[in-house]
Amino acid sequence: MDTKMAFSFIVSFLILFLCFVFHKRTKGSKPLNLPPGPPKLPLIGNLHQLVGLLPHRAFRDLAKIYGPIMHVQLGKVSAVIVSSPRLAKEILKTHDIAFADRPKTFGSELVLYKNTDIALAPYGDYWRQMKKVSSLELLGAKKVRSFGPIREQVLDGFMEFLRLSSGKPINIHKTVTELINNVVCMASFGKNNKQQDALLESLEEFAQVNSGFYLADLFPDFKFLYMVSGLRSKLMKLHKTLDKIFDDILEEHECRRNAGEVQQEDLLEVLLKIKEEGTLEFPITNNNIKAIFVDVFAGGTDTSSLTIEWAMTELMRNPSIMEKAQAEVREAFKGKKKIMESDIQSLSYLQSIIKETLRLHPPIPLLLPHVCREQCQIDGYDIPVKMKVIINALACSTDPEYWNDAEIFKPERFENTSVDFMGTNYHFIPFGSGRRMCPGITFGMITVEFFLAQMLYYFNWKLPNGLNSEDIDMAEVDGALAAKKVHLHLIPTCYVPEL
Ligand code: HEM
């Protein structure tokens, strides 16, 4: 560390400490019966218990000691962590309205145009209106089905790429993410966009710096931290880049519209029409549309691609499950020259594999944070207004009280049961539940299923460099998304179907 950096670090720390002491003296403490939790250190609270660990795994371990409802102090942010299906139901169903808010961060206000997207919009009339638009007009079953030809076109290209790569290792993460980004881009704007890679890169960076675990967000009262930590300039730069990309996309779309080239109703066209009709109670602007596309790209790309990567990883680690899955698709598609999206509905074993993947590797293991709007009691403890509430979906989907052999990959557990991810089985909530539940389930799941079905039908897979299945690194990256830390590389070899 150079002298200048060391100096600014020491000064920040001192100011932080003085602010902390001052705050403690001026604020009277209320006699609330908060949930129990691990002992807290002055200033940093429980942050030291998370250093170098993955929050969803560290919280799951702490819950084994302190119980399924825990109070933690993350710097200056007070949070309640819920880790059991019974209490997740209390928050997401019984007291759904009381916990339907989201936290605001400096980053979300800036990059999401004052939180006017859907995912991080505060609970209220604007959010309700846009959630309805997303569920009915953008991501409803009919609209998602209308993008079938796009998925088929992208997958045809992928299968051709795999045939050409036969015998050579490919990076599953990189390839699948790029292709799903193509699907999302074509569904959103009607065509691929030359800036789509830059868009994805910026959104990945935003997801990282807006995870809620950045120093400045953990001490939100101390605004200077945004400056000294460099987060402010990073976010300003990100906002500028994204804004320019979206402006270019809007301009190009306008030109294509004027030239009569917009044929199929892509998502941008749907939103522009809604804007122009002017029938919404809260009229939307181009900035609101840009904020919604941040959700569509951030929510629609990595979640699906990492599910495919984890599913392939588990299949490589479990050869008998891979064999059974390939037998299912090869029987179902026997004699077909081309696989259409309508053909995948009968693949019940593949669907169980996807559910089991989402159970052990929920892409957003802590869901998106909820915020309490009305003081209420959960399990006898007080949860005050503004308290951040984090639901540990991973802890719920691996709770040994609900799952036998909870840590073992066993798709058969989903056979002959009605347990699904639609938000009513609180021991399995990879998409959340209640008012703030994910509206993109159909879009995400159809993509994951169609990709996996074709990858398993047309190809056999093996690990490169003589690796064994036990050698696969199962570590996750640190961030809001539980992506695989070391990308999965696999060698495809063509399977010639019997006609
Ligand atoms: C495998 C795929 C996906 C997974 C696992 C997933 C998961 C989630 C989760 C856990 C939440 C938060 C729920 C909560 O806080 O209680 C969420 C919210 C959301 N997701 Fe997804 N998602 C996926 C795909 C998509 C897609 C494809 C889109 C859009 C194209 C999307 C858009 C959204 C939006 C807009 C929200 C915010 C809803 C709200 O706050 O009201 N997601 N998603």
UniProtKB/TrEMBL annotation:
Compartments where located: Membrane
MF annotations from Gene Ontology: heme binding; iron ion binding; monooxygenase activity; oxidoreductase activity, acting on paired donors, with incorporation or reduction of molecular oxygen
Transmembrane portions of the chain: 6-23
Membrane topology per record: Single-pass type II membrane protein
Superkingdom of origin: Eukaryota
Known cofactor(s): heme
Keywords: Glycoprotein, Heme, Iron, Membrane, Metal-binding, Monooxygenase, Oxidoreductase, Signal-anchor, Transmembrane, Transmembrane helix
GO biological process assignments: sesquiterpene biosynthetic process
Gene3D superfamilies: Cytochrome P450
PROSITE patterns in alphabetical order: CYTOCHROME_P450
Binding site for heme: C438
Pfam families named among the record's database cross-references: p450 (PF00067)
Any one annotated GO CC term: membrane
Similarity annotation: Belongs to the cytochrome P450 family.
Protein name as it appears in the record: Cytochrome P450
Lineage of the organism: Eukaryota, Viridiplantae, Streptophyta, Embryophyta, Tracheophyta
